[in-house]
């Protein structure tokens, strides 16, 4: 019982390979059944046609031996197939007659009287025919079902033909033969088909199972590779078959997915490492300052300075945490933007008013060079964050007595925000990575110690917000001359149908 239950658990529910084997075998069985039925019917029709042709030819040979002279039938019997006159008048019970073998012949006159006949006709008391029963036809074919003395059923195929002389019937010839031999051939054919079918289905089932295993071999390779990847090795790729079939495209899709996963895990690891480093810095600074304050008594002014320093680091830590949360939500697509009509020129004007004091502290000129009225569709709070981050970044990397200018203009169906500075610039090898999270380069992102409040996330957040608004951001920079950041956003009229 346990063995049966174990076998049943392995076979049901059926796996894909067993299902394919089952369906292949079922389809083959249906094909064999239909093909066998067609072959059987064709063979039956062909044999019956051949049978009738043979009887017709035999009747034609006998017809040439029968003639009429002075209303008297003359029979020459050169073929030897016409029964003799003695056989006609003898007792049929004394003559062995078996209609299952040999040819049966009967000759009648036009009125249906028997002239000559094989013993089988009299033994089975077959009805006679008259020329009037033929009507307009001269040939009649029929199948008679008879029963032998032993009780066995016999089918007789009978071919009857009227002989005429200038349109006047003078005799009827009948030729018959048993259909037992034909039925025997058909039965043997059916038996052979029935005996071959189980062997063919068994061979087909085994072959289908083997072919299914061969067909699923690439799938097993994909599975093995996926298990290795599940162990943490994202550098592996699934092997691709030569044939560009469904398995090939599945492998291509899996490789693309694995590549994306590898890139995502790499960025996640780097993000976690950089975030841990950035979080450690303000926390270490706060701990250091509080430890120093606790080691020895300080004056009130000194305590105030320590609290101010701790507050500065706390603000920096808070900004870092908010930026990390914003990027995390963007990665998970949980950051919901509220789209409305936004006047980009007014947003820039408000940001410049806020950032002017910071620029003056560093002796930097901040100015709105040209603010054309530009209306876009977007989240006003996020667009303010874009302008603020770009302006803050420009001020941070511009030396004293430098200049930062902001321009808003329209170009086709796009609204452009351009932020220029006269800072130290960014080397060309750093430009492709400038919008990556926590990316730093000595020549590109070093800040003065007095103003070191950046986390390396500002431009990454700007890039995410711009892309979320279906826009683009680009940067041009020359070392020693400054940088230019350009943000392109769809105008309200061009983007109304997209929101």
Report on the structure:
The protein is an alpha+beta fold and 499 residues long. 51% of the residues lie in helices and 20% in strands. It contains 13 helices and 14 strands. A 5-stranded antiparallel beta sheet has the order 4-3-7-6-5. β3 (104-109) and β4 form a beta hairpin. α7 runs antiparallel to α8 (300-331) and α10 runs antiparallel to α12. The longest helix has 50 residues, at 246-295. Mean pLDDT is 78; it is low at 92-97, 442-453 and 494-499.
Topology summary:
Blueprint: H1 2-11, H2 16-63, E1 66-69, E2 72-75, H3 85-89, E3 104-109, E4 114-117, H4 119-123, E5 139-147, E6 153-165, E7 168-178, H5 180-215, H6 217-230, H7 246-295, H8 300-331, E8 340-343, H9 344-361, E9 365-371, E10 375-378, H10 380-396, E11 403-411, E12 414-421, H11 442-445, H12 458-468, E13 472-478, E14 482-490, H13 492-495
Helix pairs in contact: 2-5, 7-8, 8-12, 9-10, 10-12
What is the structure about, briefly put?
The chain is of the alpha+beta class and 499 residues long. The protein contains 13 helices and 14 strands.
Instruction: Give start-end ranges of low-pLDDT stretches.
Output: 92-97, 442-453, 494-499
CA gyration radius, whole angstroms: 52 Å
Structural class estimated from helices and strands: alpha+beta
Query: What is the makeup of the main sheet?
Result: 5 strands, antiparallel
- Give the spatial strand order of the biggest sheet: 4-3-7-6-5
Strand content: 15-25%
Number of strands: 14
**Total number of helices:** 13
Gross morphology? rod-shaped
Distance between the termini: 65 Å
Mean pLDDT: 78
Helicity range: 40-55%
The SSE order reads HHEEHEEHEEEHHHHEHEEHEEHHEEH
Organism: Ktedonobacter robiniae
EC number: 2.7.13.3
Subcellular location: Membrane
Keywords: Kinase, Membrane, Phosphoprotein, Transferase, Transmembrane, Transmembrane helix, Two-component regulatory system
